[in-house]
Amino acid sequence: MRLNKDRIKRDIIKELQTERAINIDEASKLDIYYALSSLMKNYIYENWLKTNRQYIRNSEKQVYYFSMEFLMGKLLVSNLINIGIKDICQEALKELNIDLNEIEEIEKDQGLGNGGLGRLAACFMDSMASIGVPGHGCGIRYSYGLFEQKIVDGYQVEFPDKWLQNENPWEIKRKEKSVKVKFGGNVRVIEEDGRLKFIHENYESVLAVPYDTPLVGYKNKRVNTLRLFSAEAMEQDFDFSNFSRGKYIEAFEYKHSIESISQVLYPDDALEAGRNLRLKQEYFLVSAGIQSIMRTFKKLKKPIEDFHEYIAIHINDTHPALAVPELMRILMDEENLGWDEAWNITANTISYTNHTIMSEALEKWDVEMFKSLLPRIYMIISEINERFCRELWNTKYYGDFDKISQMAIIAHNQIRMAHLAIVGSYSVNGVAKLHTELLKKQELKDFYDYYPYRFNNKTNGISHRRWLIKSNPKLTELINETIGRDWINLPTKLRKLLKYRNDPAFQERIYQIKQNNKIKLSNIIREKNGIDVDPGSIFDIHVKRLHEYKRQLLNVFHIMYLYNSLRENPHFDIYPRTFIFGGKAAPSYNMAKQIIKLINTLADKVNNDSRIKDKIKIVFMENYGVSLAEDIIPAANVSQQISTTTKEASGTGNMKFMMNGAITLATLDGANIDIKNAVGEENIVVFGLNEKEFLELYRSGSYNSMELYNNDIRLKTILNQLKGGFFSVKKDELSIIYDSLIKHNDEFFVLKDFDSYVKAQKKIENLYRNKPKWREMSIVNIGSSGVFSSDRTVYEYATGIWKMNLHNGYY
Ligand code: AZC
């Protein structure tokens, strides 16, 4: 379809009339948004159909990315970009006196994820479609996404995220493709034709109704599918049996309880919930997803024994690890395969990514609860466990009870999901070099020793289409003008920018773009927070989930140190800085919530202290999420990536910031290390203990935070301020922070790294004062960021793990 401005104008007007019964001059922004999306669907659907037809016709191997979270953000503009009509659309709208940015505002973020893991899934979807991987997402259509955060009196308060309040124009409900998921009941074992048969009975059925969203590839006419399932009560259960028995109200209660399965996303990003409803959600996802894959597979008319030649299932952390027993169940109970055949297929179909070494995130299920909710699945896991333990005994660990019980899938009345995921898959990967090494050396060492060939690294990446082309259009324009557009299909070509690192004219333009982005962000801050910030100050930004290991506290302590120094000595020399924070705390994570309160309390005090003459401003932006990140990141000078080393598996925010020209202030943790290797030591500012020093100190148990308190007057002052009446908060309110650092010996080494952090911050300041140097660093960061595109990551998954042949001009 050829598109031009006039045609788009005509189509929008027509669309408004025929679909919304309204003329353009009366149309609201919401009307325009719907008209525009419906118009785009005309362009998208044609290619969606073609893509699906081609997949079936060519029997191309398909990959299904199973994830409990997809943090997609807004889709309108990103789809316009990928279709390739953003610019003409923007012009067409302008001629109709409509501002595309205002229309975009109307769209609600699709926030069905907590943080890194969910956003990674979204970037992968974009990259798969764009580099030509036949890959689809499989998840849950939560009625409520991650809670909306408001700051009230300095505290985080949670509100439901009503993202479906208005109709979601991108999804198509496919009721006719619904499948049944079974919970509870019992399993009767019978013998038939000399074989055991397992009859699941007295169960409760839930209907999993798919909603499909097209995933549009970048200017390549490919459209993949994100399939999210919603839970509905089965009509016959709901309508007839209960109603006819006069149980009218009970029938509604029943319906409500069934639908609660897809009601809400669990809001903890690295904490396992251990709850019955969460287990239901996890099984609901895998059972619905695999049944629906089975249907597609049948269309190919290939022998079931070859299933894994045509299908790859990737599980995003252990949350969908029940894919292992569920695929076994379907192959044995429904396709009538024997155990060995089913196991061969399963273990060659499933691959698994680990996203954290934090032990509190490791999923474990209580056996009793599990058994009563999923009796047949429990039997299968038990059998997998028995066979696995027997194999260990017979091969490597004869007589070694300890080793076998450490590695078992079921032990101490718990089912360990990570063990299930490793045993049942052919590939286990970490998400950055250090993280993968730690998995091999420590967390999963037993499994690495046993299955060394299964382990591999796939360093995370981000979609440069969303995090550069969409969020920073002016920088994109400058890049295109300078080195052409090749980099869009092969982002490592951004290296061509390095030639201009010392070119004063280019440096000036980079500076101007950053400056404009800072002005834009300042306006947002004025509007949302009522705080005036100076775009001439250093924008020093720390946005991510609130977590002790991410050490927002370390940042706060440095600010308190600066503030104390300025109060003591008004001539204390600092370059004006704006410290910007954003991030949500899990609703049950007390300490994280207190840190939010501390940031806001400090902000009030500092921002209103006329003695420091606006040299420091502190802003906490509420409700950090994908769209806000798109406004914040392009405006950053400094990117704070300061987790306690070994704790952040990778980080992906770090990559977004560098791609937008911020300088990373980093510990040697996660992908910060890979960033350092990409930009070179002189283009990043590193501080703090490294992995080796950290582990030594940690293991020796010789760290004593009290000593630092006693010996460093800066720390003593700050910590005393937390306890005393320095902040006008309720008495003892902030002492939980004091206690964690002093009484509980500072688990995340905030005090330990403080001195080194202060020095690194001083270094940042000096570098910033040296304008050509800073601009050069900024250019080197942008130019070196291509390797962190998720196109590269997905290419590595596709060829290295999923064994796909890609026919793509670039990759
Ligand atoms: C996160 C990691 O904490 C983060 O370092 C990584 O970049 C991201 O995954 C993507 O790989 N983990 C999570 O969000 N959640 C869990 C359960 O690990």
List the helices and strands and how they pair.
Blueprint: H1 5-20, H2 29-57, E1 62-66, E2 70-73, H3 76-83, H4 86-95, H5 100-106, E3 110-112, H6 116-131, E4 135-140, E5 148-152, E6 155-159, E7 172-173, E8 179-183, E9 186-192, E10 195-201, E11 204-216, E12 223-233, H7 235-244, H8 248-259, H9 276-300, H10 307-310, E13 311-316, H11 323-334, H12 339-347, E14 350-353, E15 364-366, H13 367-373, H14 375-394, H15 401-407, E16 410-411, E17 414-416, H16 417-423, E18 427-430, H17 433-443, H18 445-450, E19 455-457, H19 464-470, H20 473-483, H21 486-489, H22 504-529, E20 538-543, H23 552-568, E21 577-582, H24 590-607, E22 616-621, H25 626-632, E23 638-641, H26 653-659, E24 663-666, H27 672-679, E25 685-686, H28 691-700, H29 705-711, H30 713-723, H31 735-741, H32 750-769, H33 771-783, H34 790-801
Parallel strand pairs: 1-4, 1-13, 4-12, 13-14, 14-18, 18-19, 20-21, 20-23, 21-22, 23-24, 24-25
Antiparallel strand pairs: 2-3, 5-6, 7-11, 8-11, 9-10, 11-12, 15-17, 16-17
Helix pairs in contact: 1-2, 1-4, 2-3, 2-5, 3-19, 6-34, 7-8, 9-11, 11-12, 11-14, 13-14, 22-33, 23-24, 23-32, 29-30
The structure holds N-(acetylcarbamoyl)-beta-D-glucopyranosylamine.
The site of N-(acetylcarbamoyl)-beta-D-glucopyranosylamine has 18 residues, from α6.
Task: From the structure above, extract its key features.
ten-stranded mixed β-sheet; carbohydrate metabolism; binds N-(acetylcarbamoyl)-beta-D-glucopyranosylamine; alpha/beta; Alpha-1,4 glucan phosphorylase; six-stranded parallel β-sheet; pyridoxal phosphate; single chain; 49% helix; Rossmann fold; globular; 811 residues
